[in-house]
C-alpha cells in the first residue's frame, strides 16, 4: 500500500487496502510513537516525518481531487475554495507548531547547578534585584498574597516595589507597614508597560523581576532563575504561569479534577520546545530581566503593542539577547474567575499578538533570521478561530443547502484520506505532549473562545491600533453572576439547526442532500458538533465561582486548644486562608463542639483563633478568625509560597474526554461546596493620591517571616 496517492477511486479498493492508511497511522504513531526516546532529536524528526507524509498525501488528494475540479455556480466554487484556503492556512500554522516540537529543552539540572553556585557565594556577591508588582484596581485580598510572597523570597539582595496606577492611599499605607516601596506616576499612559517604564526610571538594580498583581512568587523563585544570567546572552528568564484556582471552563463543567486549565499545553509543552530554538518569550509576569539588556533598547519596555511582553523578547532578540525558559512552577496566580475576565484577557492577547505584524519591531521587521520570524508569527489567532468555526458551519451549510465544502468525495475517500490525516495530526501532538495535549477539550474551549477572538482579530487587522486597553478583572469584579448571552444563543441556535438538518435529511421525502452516500459521514460530523456546541452552551452559562479561598490538601499535625484549656490533637485534612478541616488522632476525644471558639496551633504559623463550624465524630471544621496580623502573613507564606498545588490534574486525554461527555448528563446536579467569603480589610476605594510621580520608601523593614516561621515550626 503506497502512502503517496495516485488519486485512485477509494471506493474501488478492497477493505484491507482501504483501511491501510488508517492502520499505518495507528501503528506508527499511536503504538510506536510513545515508545520512542523523544529526548533524542532523531525520534522527534521521525514523528514529524510520519505525520507530514500523511498530511502531504492528504493535501495532494484534497487539492487535485476535491478542489481544483470544482465547477458550477459561483457560490459553490467560492465555498469550496474558501474552505480549502482556511484549512491550508491552518495547516501552515500547525506545521510551524510541529517545527517547534522538533526541539525540546529541560533546564532543571542547569537550574540546580546555578542554585548550588549562588548559595555558595557570599551574600554581598549576589546581584541586586528590583521586584515589581504593577497594579491598577486589584483588591487587597489579592495584593496581600502577592506582596507577602514577594517579601518571603529566599534571596538576600532584593527590594519589592508596588507600582500603583490606581494611586490608592490605603495601599500606600499598607506597603509602608509591610516594608515595601510604593510608586505612582502622573498618568496611566501605556497601561502596564508605561507603569513599569516609570518604575525603571526610579530604581537601579541589576535585574528586574515582574509579577502581575495576582501572581505569588514561590520562595525559591530568584535563587532558581538568577543563575541563568551567568550567560551574558540571556536577557530574560521566564517561568510558567500556573494557577491556584480553577478557570471558568473547568468550573462550569464541574471538571476541576478531570480537566487541566487550557494553558498547560502552551506553558508545559510548547514553551520548552520554543526554548530549544532560543525562541521563548516573556509572558508579562513571572520573569526576570537583565537591566543591561533593557538599556540596549532604550531602558524601557516597548509600548507600541498592548502585548509588550512578546514585543520585548523580539526587540531583545534583535540585540543579541535570548529569553530563557525554565519550566518550573515558581509562581502561582489567579486564573480568570469568570467568563468576562477570560474573554477580556484572551481578546487582549489576540489583539496585541496581531498588532506586532504591523510594527517594524515585530517579526516582519529587520535583523531577524527566517526561523525567528517564523516562530514569532501570531497568525494562529486567526487561523484557529476560523478553522474551529468553519468546522461547525460547513456541515450545517451542507445539511440545509446541499452545497459541499469539497467535491468528488465519498465515504470511502474520507476513510482513506481524511480520517488518517486527522488521526496523524492529533497523534503527533499527543506523542510530543502526552500529558498536556487534550484534543477534545481544546476543540470545545477553542470553539467557545473563537466567538469572541475572531471578531477581535478581524477588527485588529482592519484597524490595528487605537483600541481601549482593558484590564482583566480580578477578585470581586470578576465574580459577577451572569452568562454570555451572545455565545449561549448563537451556540444554541447552531446546535438546533444542526439537529433539525439531520432530522430533515433522515427522511427521504424531505431530504436536501443529493449525495446520499455522504449522509453517514455528515451525520457523524454533525453529532460531534452538537456535542461540542452543547458543551459550549454549558460553559457560557458559567456563574462565577462562589468560593472563599482556595483549599490546599495538607497532611501535618495540628493542636486544638478549647476555650476551657483542654487540648486535642489531630491532623490537617485541608486548609485555606479562611479555615481548616481536621481529623482527630485515633482514640482521642475532641474537646470542642460546633459553635464554640478555640485556638489551633499550626506549624510555621503559630496560634490562630477559630470558630468551630461543625464537629462530627473525629472530624472538625473550623473557621479562622484572622484579621491582618503576622499570623495571617505566615499562613499566606505557608500556603502560597511553598509549592502547594491545589489544581494539578493528572487525567489522560481519554479520561478527560469521557469526563466532559459525562458532564452533559450530570448538568445541573453539581453543588458548590465552599461558600465562605474571604476576610478583606475594608478600604476607601474612591480616595486617590495626586496624579504625580511618587516614590515612597517604607519606614520599616520587611518582617522576617522565614525566621518567625522557623521559630514556630520548632515550637510545634
In a nutshell, what does this entry contain?
By secondary structure, this protein is α+β, with helices and mostly antiparallel strands. It has an 8-stranded mixed β-sheet with strand order 9-6-8-4-1-2-3-18, with helices on both faces.
Helix content: 40-55%
Query: Using DSSP, what is the number of strands?
Result: 18
Q: What's the tally of helices?
A: 23
Q: DSSP strand (E) fraction?
A: 5-15%
Q: In terms of per-residue confidence, which ranges show pLDDT below 50 for 5 or more consecutive residues?
A: 1-6, 670-684
Strand order of the largest sheet: 9-6-8-4-1-2-3-18
Radius of gyration using CA atoms only: 28 Å
Quote the distance from N terminus to C terminus. Answer: 71 Å
Major sheet attributes: 8 strands, mixed
Mean pLDDT: 90
Q: How many distinct domains? A: 3
Which secondary-structure class do the elements indicate?
alpha+beta
Q: Which descriptor suits the 3D outline?
A: globular
Characterize the structure shown.
This protein has 716 residues and is an alpha+beta fold. Helix content is 45%, strand content 13%. The protein has 3 domains: 249 residues, no CATH class; 228 residues, Spore Coat Polysaccharide Biosynthesis Protein SpsA, Chain A (Alpha-Beta Complex); 89 residues, predicted glycosyltransferase like domains (Thrombin, subunit H, Beta Barrel). The protein contains 23 helices and 18 strands. The strands form 3 sheets. Strands 9-6-8-4-1-2-3-18 form an 8-stranded mixed sheet, with helices on both faces. Strand 15 and strand 16 form a beta hairpin. The longest helix is centred in the N-terminal third of the chain and has 27 residues. The N and C termini lie far apart (71 Å). The N terminus is likely disordered.
